[in-house]
TrEMBL record:
Entry keyword Signal: yes
Tyrosinase copper-binding domain sequence ranges: 230-241
Gene3D superfamilies linked to this entry: Di-copper center containing domain from catechol oxidase (1.10.1280.10)
Domain of life: Eukaryota
Molecular-function annotations in GO: metal ion binding; oxidoreductase activity
Protein name: Tyrosinase copper-binding domain-containing protein
PROSITE patterns associated with the record: PROKAR_LIPOPROTEIN, TYROSINASE_2
InterPro entries: Di-copper_centre_dom_sf, Tyrosinase/Hemocyanin, Tyrosinase_Cu-bd
Range of residues in the leader sequence: 1-19
Length: 341
């Protein structure tokens, strides 16, 4: 009798617990368009908000070298660089990173969707893409010894984070190489999203369209640590995020939970695209300074070991709340609420 009563009480409390929402439901996903398909007014509003961040003062007072709000975003990438490249964190952290930009743009009055760049439409001929239009795009290939952008909205603007682990004022710079951009075509994208496991998709996206796109654009001196200084970075990474989602969408039941890899670089490997491991690679961009190390989060947070799990905690160091990998696995899961069109 007593046991039956306890079972009823237990069932009732479980039902109550289940009724409590843990996150808001995603009813109307925001539609993220390719740059090609955006209205001119929306393009201009997006670019203006980026310029606003590049020219607004920093707010956190704790990110080394950051002078502007934009610098804080770039600094986050610098601080996390050795945790989020050539590791299992690559795709989830950059998805979260896009969401941080989305939040920051709202501070500058832009609440529209983040655009991405469907690079397959411009593969092999990046420089003639509408993305680089001087009036309604990001401006074109840089000029002069520093490859500073010479037209478009980011002319004469300064980024104070980078190169590498330094913090020095630099112009927004890039150099487009059309021949490398043919690796971002539909065939290559299909190949990058054809694997059956997260590890396969991660490696193929990272070493394929992601890397070749970076090489074709050489944003911020082609620097792996701080290439997000060029606002164009987020259009390229929107495309990478879409690629991951397209891969996930082929088998959501399995792939919304499929995560694997390390949560920080293996020192013997470093960045997979460079030989020699971390020590040799540090000749290119230096090592994290004591100031950077002082604010670098523990890469094993939420994992309890060196392997990334769904419980892995990702940090924006106070720009927006920290989240777990589980929170960003589904772009329509509630914490995130968008789709690619
Ligand atoms: Cu990155």
């Amino acid at each position: 009798m007593l046991r039956d009563l306890l079972l009823v009480l237990l069932a009732a409390s479980t039902a109550l617990g289940a009724a409590l929402p843990t996150t808001t439901a995603c009813i109307t996903p925001q539609k993220r368009p390719s740059w090609h398909d955006m209205r001119e007014t929306d393009k201009k509003a997006y670019l203006a908000a980026n310029v606003c961040l590049l020219t607004s003062p920093q707010k956190l007072n704790r990110l080394p070298g950051a002078k502007t709000r934009w610098d804080e975003l770039v600094s986050l990438h610098q601080i996390h660089a050795l945790q989020i490249h050539t590791t299992g964190q690559f795709l989830p952290y950059h998805r979260y990173y896009l969401n941080i930009l989305s939040f920051l743009l709202q501070e500058c009055g832009y609440s529209g969707p983040l655009p991405y760049w469907d690079e397959t439409r411009d593969a092999g001929k990046f420089s003639s893409s509408p993305v680089f239009d001087p009036a309604t795009g990001f401006g074109g290939s840089g000029k002069g010894p520093q490859n500073c952008v010479a037209d478009g909205p980011f002319v004469n603007l300064t980024v104070n984070i980078g190169p590498g682990f330094k913090s020095q004022p630099r112009c927004v710079n890039r150099r487009i190489t059309n021949a490398l951009s043919n690796q971002c075509g539909a065939t290559q994208v299909a190949a990058a999203t054809s694997g059956s496991t997260y590890t396969q998709a991660l490696d193929a996206i990272y070493s394929g369209p992601h890397l070749l796109g970076h090489m074709a654009l050489a944003m911020m001196d082609g620097d792996s640590i701080t290439s997000s200084g060029d606002p164009l970075f987020f259009l390229h990474h929107g495309f990478m995020d879409k690629m991951w989602w397209d891969w996930q969408s082929k088998d959501l039941t399995k792939r919304l939970k499929d995560i694997s890899g390390l949560n920080a670089q293996d020192p013997a490997v470093g960045f997979s695209e460079f030989p020699g491991g971390m020590e040799v690679e540090s000749a290119m961009w230096g090592k994290p300074t004591p100031e950077i190390l002082a604010v670098t989060p523990d890469p094993t947070s939420g994992d309890g070991g060196k392997t990334i799990t769904l419980g892995h905690v990702m940090s924006s160091l106070g720009i927006i709340p920290n989240v777990t990998v589980a929170d960003v696995m589904d772009i329509k899961g509630g914490y995130l609420c968008y789709e690619y069109v």
